[in-house]
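Please decode residue identities from the backbone states below.
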């Protein structure tokens, strides 16, 4: 199994509904994102996916949430803007953009330097 992994960052604000604690109030994060693409095979260039192509896809998707209030985005009007759901949202959006056959896509979302949530399919 081959893997390609890219990290990047974005900033946004959110608040958690139906939650008792500090995070029920408006606050922001500088999120770190990890994107892992796995494949059993390499393409004609002997790559899973070109890093440049993957970074472009990620950046395009992040434009929709970078420096935004997540609770105002349609997906998060129906889904709590937790790290887990941000990972799933990014997975849905990035997987739509990847035009090659892959084995799996894993998204990791760090809310702080020492804690993260992930989604993989």
């Amino acid at each position: 199994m081959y893997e390609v992994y890219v990290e990047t960052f974005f900033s946004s604000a959110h608040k958690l509904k139906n939650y008792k604690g500090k995070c029920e109030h408006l606050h922001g994060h500088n999120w770190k994102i990890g994107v892992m693409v796995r494949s059993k095979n390499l393409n004609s260039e002997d790559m899973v996916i070109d890093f440049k192509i993957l970074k472009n896809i990620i950046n395009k998707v992040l434009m929709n949430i970078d420096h935004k209030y997540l609770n105002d985005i349609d997906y998060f009007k129906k889904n709590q803007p937790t790290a887990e759901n941000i990972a799933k949202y990014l997975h849905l959006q990035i997987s739509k953009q990847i035009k090659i056959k892959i084995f799996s896509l894993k998204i990791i979302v760090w809310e702080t330097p020492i804690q993260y949530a992930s989604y993989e399919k």
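Observation: The chain has one domain: 2-120.
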